[in-house]
Amino acid sequence: MRATLAVTAWMVSLVSCYSYTSTTLPDIENEDFIQDCVRIHNKFRSEVNPTASDMLYMTWDTKLAQIAKAWAKTCQFKHNEQLKPPHKLHPNFTSLGENIWTGSVSIFSVSSAITNWYSEIKYYDFKTRKCQKVCGHYTQLTKSETKSNVTTLFSIQSGRYTYVTDTPLSFSLLVH
C-alpha cells in the first residue's frame, strides 16, 4: 500500500560542528538533496521482499527536521536519549528512533548511507524476525509502520561526519 501522510516526513538537517562550513555538505533546504533522500529511502522500502502490503510512503515534516538539527548541533556520536519518552519531542509521534552513519565527507552520498543500512538485510531472519548480527538499521529503514525519517548531517573535528535518521514508529525500535 502507498499511503502519503500529511504529518509524516523524510527530513534533512545540516549542521557544521567544527571543521566544515555549512557549504561543504548539502543544506536542509536544498530541494535536490531532500528529493534525493526521499526517493532513495522510498526506493529501498519498495524493494523489501517479502513485500509489505502496508508500506508507508515517506514525505517531509519541518518539526522533525528541527529536532534532528538541534541534536546534531550537540555533536555527540550517540543516540538521542530524549527520543524515548512518547510525544516528548514531537506531539504527533509516540516513538522516535535513529540510524547513524559516519564516514568521510569526501565519500558521503545519501545513496551510500542508506545502502549501508539496507545491506544489513543479510543478518535479518524473516521467519523469526530477529537479527543474527547488527541489523537494526535495516529493520528501521524497512518496517512498514515507519512513518517518517529525519536525516541530519554534521561534521566533526576529524573531518568525518554523521548521518542520523530519527524515525517515528508505531512500535518499539531495536537499536544497538
TrEMBL record:
Residues 1-17 form the signal peptide. InterPro entries: CAP_dom, CAP_sf, CRISP-related, V5_allergen-like. Residues 32-166 form the SCP domain. The keyword Oxidoreductase does not apply. It comes from the Eukaryota. Keywords: Signal. Belongs to the CRISP family. PANTHER family: CYSTEINE-RICH SECRETORY PROTEIN-RELATED. This is Glioma pathogenesis-related protein 1 isoform X3. It comes from Trichechus manatus latirostris (Florida manatee). The lineage of its organism: Eukaryota, Metazoa, Chordata, Craniata, Vertebrata. The gene is GLIPR1.
